[in-house]
Amino acid sequence: MKGDPVIEVEAMSRRYGSGKDAFYAVRDLELTVAEGQLFGLLGTNGAGKTSSLEVIQGLSRATDGSVRVLGMDPVRERRELRPSLGIMLQKGGLPQDFTARESLSMWAGTCSNPLPVDEVLERVDMRDRSDTRVKFLSGGEARRLDLACAIIGQPLVLFLDEPTTGLDPESRRNTWQLIAELKASGVTIMLTTHYLDEAESLCDQLAIMHRGTVVRSGTVAEVVADHPAQIKVRRPDLLLPNLPGAEMRVDGDSVVITTATVQETLTDLLIWAQHNNVALSGLDARAASLETVFLSIADQFDHHVKLEGAPV
Ligand SMILES: Nc1ncnc2c1ncn2[C@@H]1O[C@H](COP(=O)(O)OP(=O)(O)OP(=O)(O)O)[C@@H](O)[C@H]1O
Known about the structure:
Layout: E1 5-16, E2 23-34, E3 38-43, H1 49-57, E4 64-69, H2 78-81, E5 85-88, H3 100-108, H4 117-123, H5 139-151, E6 157-161, H6 169-184, E7 188-192, H7 196-202, E8 205-210, E9 213-218, H8 220-225, E10 229-234, E11 246-251, E12 254-259, H9 262-275, E13 284-286, H10 290-308
Parallel strand pairs: 3-7, 3-8, 5-6, 6-7
Antiparallel strand pairs: 1-2, 1-4, 8-9, 10-12, 10-13, 11-12
This protein binds adenosine-5'-triphosphate.
């Protein structure tokens, strides 16, 4: 039923190696994805997104914690669960000497209820490349063929690991539309991406990972709401006043003001400018975006690590 949990991850950790070589790629991951939701896993390189997906998909075992997908253990109940899953790995492993159509037909042969091959080639915009061997496809075309393989079995749950990496802007837009259509048809989707506009445009919920842990999560609006807005103005001749609740720093010939209450700060600034006959040139005020949140995370947490002097 819509709203029921489809993916449930509790205190999940994934460790590589053992003894002195032990390395936790994911630590104490907690997340729930409801039926029909599109959940985005974002994060810096090496944050643990793919490692998390692999455990949730049942491709590797959790070191600790538990994972349920459609109420099943993705490793122990793989056989029962597999027909309901569509998986697009970061690197597809299709045979290089087959054509796109042969590869997809072969893949369809492993599914219990596949869509017609030509229909799926059409949906991923690969009809005119269907007789091309996989090894001659461009990076973006190969990515679209991987997506075709992930959706041909009509999955209830779809995992997409960086689905639009290497795609040109038009193909990216088409892929977003296809993902949105799949979501609208009720498929539960979990994706990783480095494209923040992709996350902003597609995700109902997201989690931002850094060094194996989730450091922010919620809807895009919730993640952004916790983050201060920024006002930038060219440095005026008069010293700017103290603006309650705001922080100021000089950046070249500009002053950057960060504030959690942008409307109040902006009002204070404009009133001060009017009283003092100051023209505020280059004035630019903008709410936080996913990009500003994301960029501040690496800064903030790496700084924290340096101060603590210990690895996370
Ligand atoms: N098989 C492995 N053995 C040892 N370490 C691994 C293995 N696979 C991944 N790692 C390490 O685990 C960490 C997390 O990797 P992972 O691929 O999950 O990150 P990611 O967030 O998907 O990164 P990216 O955005 O670069 O794809 C990295 O430091 C990586 O080097």
